[in-house]
Amino acid sequence: MAKNGKAGYIVVKAPDDYPGHTYWGLRYVQEHVLVWWKNTGHVPAKGEHVHHKNENKGDNRFSNLELLTAADHAKRHSKPPALIRLQCSWCNASFTRSLRNVRVQLKQGQKNFYCSRSHQVQAQQVARRETRGIPLWILLSQVQMHSLPRRTGGSRATVAQAAKLKTRVNSNWGVAKR
Ligand SMILES: [Zn+2]
Ligand SMILES: [Zn+2]
């Protein structure tokens, strides 16, 4: 018994009647391929892979083996992406994204992440108006007017009322401080 270092599979000496491909010109064969052939009479063709169900390449019991196309085999070994937990820059909700994508976006200079497309759009609208010189807290008060007390009277609020409103908006909307 020997190890085929490259792929981590066990190779064994092929029996004289084994009809398939053998390695090193010495009639060695990967043990899991041999086990498959012994149990099914089928030598895996090019583009067919014998997969180890428990992913242990040393476990060559027939019950642990499965014949797959190369494409299905690749899928079987692809791992789900690593996730990163982020906080929405608009609503502070916690959400997850693929770590890989976030890394790319950070490299591209992205600073804010949003739990949803609609929160991204709302934040961008506010940012756009902000650059035209309208204070953020007024914009936020417009966005959330329905949840604010009537007596502030919208745009006609007094300075004192406006200050109160600003405090209220800031406490309701974590995004006000940037
Ligand atoms: Zn496999
Ligand atoms: Zn959000």
Written overview of the protein:
The chain contains 6 helices and 7 strands, in the order βββαββαββαααα. It has 178 residues and is of the alpha+beta class. The radius of gyration is 32 Å and the shape is rod-shaped. The chain folds into 2 domains: 3-77, no CATH class; 83-167, no CATH class. α5 packs across α6 (159-172). It starts with a strand and ends in a 6-residue tail after the last helix. The strands form 3 sheets. The protein has a 3-stranded antiparallel sheet. It has a two-stranded antiparallel sheet with strand order 4-5. A two-stranded antiparallel ribbon has the order 6-7. Bound molecules: zinc ion (ZN) (2 copies). Residues 88, 90-91, 93, 114-116, 119 line the site of one zinc ion.
Order of helices and strands: EEEHEEHEEHHHH
**What percent of residues are in strands?**
15-25%
Helix content: 25-40%
Our Rg estimate from Cα atoms comes to 32 Å
What is the total number of structural domains? 2
Q: Span between N and C termini?
A: 65 Å
Report the average pLDDT across residues. 78
Structural class: alpha+beta
| Contiguous runs where pLDDT drops below 50 for at least 5 residues | 1-5, 145-157, 172-178
What is the makeup of the main sheet? 3 strands, antiparallel
Strand elements, count: 7
Spatial order of strands in the largest sheet: 1-2-3
**Shape category:** rod-shaped
Continuous helix count: 6
**Could you tell me which ligands this complex binds, including any ions or cofactors?**
zinc ion
